[in-house]
Specification:
Structural class: alpha/beta
Helix content: 10-25%
Strand content: 15-25%
Radius of gyration: 30 Å
Shape: elongated
Number of strands: 18
Number of helices: 6
Length: 310
């Protein structure tokens, strides 16, 4: 049945609040028909409709967010609605990044034979891991000299984590461990039975974690995902640090290493009821092409050969 009422449009906010006292139902303006000085309600109105009741979203004493919860738009909006203008957070860890090697040149510079352009995929990879990268000025590459490397390491000791690439293997000019040891470095592990990334180094410089990754880009990226990203997540306060694991079918045959666990870069796509993993055609540790389009790592146990579905 249509009902008629006088429109409520004029008056101050105080007048409106006074007029609303004792009401228990809200009818949206778009659901009424206004004719002159009256309005008609062509709909059936239910008592209590469109009323936001006290305590329906959260109640006194209720925990809104657990410790370790990332603050995105929804979480920030909830805190603001509860009246919290400031909350205690874990700051993004500061990462001191050092690229080492006499063979490195700045990106864009003319290169001669035997030179490598100075690029590592790590700054691009650190964003989802919640880290702020601190790098030196252009040209501040750690040359293959123990004293030079030690100065760079000293400059990075204000960061929460030190991350270097190159100089951790057993070559004649791999001086990173020597430079670290000169500053009281405590080795936790050096060399892991994986491919790529065998010479990865981890230890402590005082109470500061230090990761020494291989210089080859694919190896550096793989060891970053396996070792550094979980550490950055822990420093950022995340409650879980393990990478996401998914079951997937292989699109191609793969062959593991005889003595080391292999981690192959590839693309992951979703199919009806399952995921499919396609290994990158180039898996050389020194090739940037193995990272092109890659969004996942496939662990292949030592001595294992796996057949794809195609």
């Amino acid at each position: 049945m249509d009902r008629l009422a006088r429109p409520w449009r004029d008056g101050t906010d105080h007048d409106r609040l006074t007029a609303a006292a004792g009401c228990d139902t809200v009818v949206p303006l778009e659901e009424v028909v206004e004719t002159g000085t009256t309005i008609r309600l062509p709909i059936v109105v239910k008592a209590g409709q469109h009323v936001r009741r006290q305590g329906e979203e959260f109640r006194s004493g209720e925990r809104l967010l657990a410790a370790g919860t990332p603050l995105y738009a929804g979480e920030i909006g909830l805190l603001a609605a509860a009246g919290f203008a400031r909350v205690r957070v874990h700051p993004a860890p500061r990462v001191a990044l050092l690229s080492t090697g006499d063979e490195l040149v700045e990106t864009g510079a003319d290169t001669g034979a035997g030179a490598d352009r100075q690029f590592q995929p790590l700054p691009a990879r650190r964003a989802p891991a919640r880290g702020r990268v601190q790098r030196g000025p252009p040209g501040a590459v750690g040359r293959d000299e123990p004293e030079t490397l030690a100065r760079h390491l000293a400059a990075g000791e204000q960061a929460d984590l030190i991350l270097s690439t190159g100089g951790v293997s057993v070559g004649d000019r791999d001086y990173l461990r020597e430079a670290l040891n000169s500053r009281g470095f405590e080795t936790v592990f050096w060399k892991v039975a994986i491919k790529p990334g065998k010479p990865v180094l981890f230890g402590l410089l005082g109470d500061r974690p230090v990761f020494g990754l291989p210089g080859n880009p694919a190896a550096a990226a793989a060891t970053f995902e396996l070792f550094v990203r979980p550490a950055l997540r822990r420093l950022a306060g995340f409650p879980t640090t393990s990478p996401l694991r998914l079951h997937a079918v292989l699109t191609d045959d793969v062959q593991g290493d005889r003595t080391r666990e292999c981690f192959l870069w590839g693309t992951l796509r979703e199919e009806p009821g399952r995921f499919a993993f396609q290994p990158s055609r180039r898996q050389g540790s020194g090739q940037n092409r193995s990272l092109q389009g890659a969004r996942a790592l496939l662990p292949v146990p030592a001595g294992c050969a796996c057949s794809g579905r195609e």
